[in-house]
Write a structure and sequence with these properties.
Blueprint lengths: L1 H18 L10 H25 L7 H13 L6 H9 L6 H6 L20 H14 L3 H26 L5 H9 L1 H6 L5 H21 L4 H19 L3 H20 L4 H22 L4 H19 L13 H17 L9 H23 L8 H21 L3 H7 L4 H11 L2 H19 L1
Helix pairs in contact: 1-2, 1-7, 2-7, 3-6, 6-7, 7-8, 7-10, 8-19, 10-11, 10-12, 12-13, 12-17, 15-17, 17-19
Length: 444
């Protein structure tokens, strides 16, 4: 039955992709877009089999955590449908009745603690509880829907690139759809599928709202998409929403008013929000530094207990100097690891291959086609600062190599977009031709 339902929803959502105008690119044909969607489904199913047979401890498998908790909420539907609706929409559920009857049987519903500013599990549990209406408890149906939702986000990012890149071509679009880490981690019911959805739709809808919509109906539709995307980001990874919100302000101002001092605009905006963040910390009991340090040390303890591969055993102190001195190590861990032959598990070994390929691509672009005169500086600084900001937070938050590989994946499309913006394709072709000629001449 699970196979039949999985095939049915795959065909149904493939039909949606094929027929919907949203899944239409000026660069990529529909058949290739469908291939990218099916690739995500295959990756999601592979992740399911890895966590079922290669890592058989279901209690420790991330992909089953929110699904298991959602089943406790879904159980309310036959006899207490109003309870189910209240839990889905969060209406008057902070009381003893709901705790005693439902939440006490979950493992991640009330995981708030000190880290709630960084992540929250309610959104994912509710998503799974809704999909249970269609899946009848079969897990891989949730895989199909998760792959579809994240694919929507990838299409949003694709439209954003098409609208903002000058002379856009297939090389600009492909990294959005074919980076293995992005495909792998965003194609099942992990937080990454919502992050990819939220990032892509937030950027696409905001850009569309301010520059490309003409009618009130279109503006309202884009506004609704922005609200949905913001909720997905805020209740999944709060810092990603903050990072995008901060960067989109100078991006839109520069784009609208054709400002010249682009880097200065980004710098002033970032410094302003850092100052606001400092005021917020000083006037409330929310301390972002304490949260990051708590997250880092908590994950380090977990890694030591479970013998996970760690970048280095170092507990952080909640003071600026200790954070500042650890920052270069954190960045190097995110940007360059895992190193070749460093892997001790299947996941890390696969990530090594991707990392080597990424570094070869980066070296090729910077050596053969580097262009000092960046034409689209606004888009470059937006992508570069997002990549850099995400790398800083991931590197500070976790010392676990496997977690770094997973958490950084959402920033990888922006890495490639940054590299493309640094690259002059004509220069690259010319230098490649010169190298070819040199070796041919030497051979003779």
């Amino acid at each position: 039955m699970e196979i039949l339902l999985t095939c049915f929803y795959t065909l149904l959502l493939s039909f949606v992709v094929f027929k919907s105008n949203f899944f239409k690119s000026t660069i990529v044909s529909k058949k290739y877009l469908l291939s990218f969607f099916w690739l995500k489904i295959i990756a999601g199913l592979c992740l399911y089999f890895i966590y079922t047979y290669y890592y058989p401890d279901r209690q420790k498998a991330d992909i089953f955590r929110y699904f298991n908790d959602a089943q406790q909420i879904y159980k309310a539907l036959p006899q207490h449908p109003l309870d189910y609706i209240q839990m889905i929409f969060g209406i008057n559920i902070d009381n003893q009745y709901f705790y005693d009857n439902y939440f006490i049987y979950t493992n991640h519903w009330d995981r708030i603690l000190q880290e709630n500013i960084v992540s929250d599990s309610h959104f994912l549990i509710r998503f799974n509880a809704i999909i249970l209406l269609f899946s009848f408890g079969y897990f891989n149906v949730h895989t199909i829907f998760a792959a579809f939702v994240s694919f929507i986000g990838q299409m949003g990012l694709c439209h954003f690139v098409e609208n903002n890149f000058k002379s856009v071509h297939i090389g600009h679009i492909l990294p959005i759809f074919i980076i293995p880490s992005v495909i792998f981690w965003s194609s099942n019911v992990l937080k990454e599928f919502l992050l990819v959805f939220g990032i892509g739709i937030f950027i696409y809808a905001a850009d569309k709202l301010f520059f490309y919509t003409k009618t009130i109906k279109q503006k309202l539709w884009m506004l609704l998409l922005i609200i949905i995307a913001c909720k997905a980001l805020i209740f999944t990874k709060y810092y990603i929403f903050c990072l995008l919100f901060i960067l989109l302000i100078p991006f839109f101002f520069i784009k609208k008013y054709h400002l010249k001092n682009i880097f200065i605009c980004y710098l002033i905006t970032i410094l302003f929000f850092l100052f606001c963040g400092w005021i917020f910390v000083e006037t409330t009991d929310r301390n972002i530094i304490n949260t990051l340090v708590y997250k880092h040390n908590d994950m380090l303890n977990l890694a030591i207990a479970e013998h996970a591969q760690i970048t280095e055993i170092r507990y952080l102190q909640a003071d600026f100097i200790d954070i500042f001195t650890y920052l270069p190590i954190a960045l190097l861990n995110v940007l360059f690891r895992p190193l070749p032959f460093e892997g001790s598990s299947l996941m890390i070994r696969l990530a090594e291959t991707e990392q080597i390929f990424l570094l070869i691509c980066a070296a090729s672009i910077l050596i053969l086609g580097f262009n000092k005169q960046i034409v689209q500086k606004n888009l470059f600084w937006f992508c570069f600062i997002f990549t850099f900001g995400n790398a800083i937070i991931v590197g500070l938050a976790t010392p676990i190599l496997g977690a770094i590989i997973r958490y950084r994946s959402i920033g990888l499309p922006f890495v490639f977009l940054s590299l493309w913006l640094l690259c002059d394709t004509n220069t690259m072709k010319h230098r490649y031709h010169k190298i070819q000629t040199f070796f041919k001449t030497k051979k003779k």
